[in-house]
Design goal:
The chain has helices spanning 2-6, 10-146, 149-165. It has 3 helices and no strands.
């Protein structure tokens, strides 16, 4: 330290101060402003990027909320469509059952009518057969009674007696 104090030169000190000030002036004029401008631009770019990121975050939240809303609406619409399809199915089943019952009742009535007509036809046929048999029996009985003359006369007299009484 003593050596520095002993070797101190005032002229050299002045020149060093002048050179230092000149260096500061040159740095301020040519380097400091571009460096500050670059730093300010970088800072502005970062602020803009942060603002854009915040805006994107808000937009993403809006999109997420909208997509959830659309999803809820789609689910509600799907549920409504399923409910409507179930109602249509149940209505179709009920209509089919009712139609089948009506067709069954109609077929039963037709079968009953057919049975009734067949029954009437059978009764008429039986009556015809009974009538034919009665006529045949009567014919045989009359032939036998009319084969004898005495029996014929008695029959004629009884018929004449019945006519007179009436």
């Amino acid at each position: 330290m003593d050596k520095l104090v002993n070797d101190f030169s005032f002229g050299l000190f002045i020149w060093q101060i002048i050179l230092f000030l000149l260096l500061l002036f040159l740095l301020r004029k040519f380097a400091w402003r571009p460096i500050l401008n670059a730093v300010n631009q970088r800072e502005e770019g970062i602020k803009n990027a942060l603002a854009a990121a915040e805006e994107a975050k808000k937009e993403m939240q809006n999109v997420t909320a909208d997509s959830e809303k659309l999803l809820k609406e789609a689910r509600a619409e799907r549920e409504a469509m399923l409910k409507e399809a179930r109602e249509i199915k149940e209505r179709m089943i009920a209509e089919s059952k009712e139609q089948a019952k009506e067709e069954g009742d109609k077929m039963i009535k037709q079968a009953q009518a057919a049975i009734e007509s067949e029954k009437k036809a059978a009764v008429a046929d039986i009556k015809n057969q009974v009538a034919e048999l009665s006529v045949e029996i009567a014919e045989k009985v009359l032939k036998e009674q009319l084969s004898n003359k005495d029996k014929q006369l008695k029959l004629v007299e009884s018929m004449l007696g019945d006519v007179k009484l009436n």
